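Task 17 of the worksheet. Students: predict the tertiary structure of the chain below and write it out as structure tokens. Keep your answer in the requested format; marks are given for formatting as well as content.
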Amino acid sequence: MVIANDDELVKLKEIGRICANAIQVMAAAMEPGMTTRELDRIGRKVLEDSGARSAPEFCYQFPGATCISINEEIAHGIPGPRVIRAGDLINIDVSAEKDGFFADTGASFTMPPVKPKIERLCRDGKRALWVGLNQVKSGEPLAKIGTAVGAFAQKNRYTLVANLASHGVGRSLHEEPAELSTWPDPSEKRMMTEGLVFTVEPFLSLGATWAEGGDDAWTLYADPKAPTVQYEHTVVATRNGPVVLTLPDERA
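Model answer:
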């Protein structure tokens, strides 16, 4: 969507904050021995207590309130009986709707102890996200985001998963501009307009370049198999740069 007035921005910031709060509360509650279903219930409660509803559940009948992906799973993991264990790499993706407005955010976490290379991957995944966010400015090409993230990945000897894209969001979970590459894409010719709302969500990996489906209709896996992280914010393009919508309350 393109924001038309201040009221819309206020509503988007509200749902963005709710999504960010849910991730923060889930991450704080996460511990070895917990199932992903138990973790999902915690996220659901944050959403419902805030008057929001899960976007993937509402829009696509996803079997859970949040997406929780562990290790070889890199996106759209279904909450269930899988137990979180020490050494795991866990991605939490929360998207939700309130009052007709949507936001989407995600982050990867470790359950110590993990190898130093995984800690570095998480650190650099956050850096890659902000490299992309810092390219957001109305009047600039959308392709600048993927070009900058790609240069960062190459410099630091990482790969990017090139079929999991960013997307427009705001009045629905997925809308125009669709399929925003967070990797170098010479075919991307679109521009960032004032007030454009979209996600930035690079998938940084120690070797994977593609996401493949598995036995269920949802979960995606790294191909080739390699540790992969995702960090995501919903953002508004303005003439002064990015306005990040998915920031938590200090008290969350």
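Marker's comment: The chain has one domain: 6-244. The chain has five helices and 15 strands.
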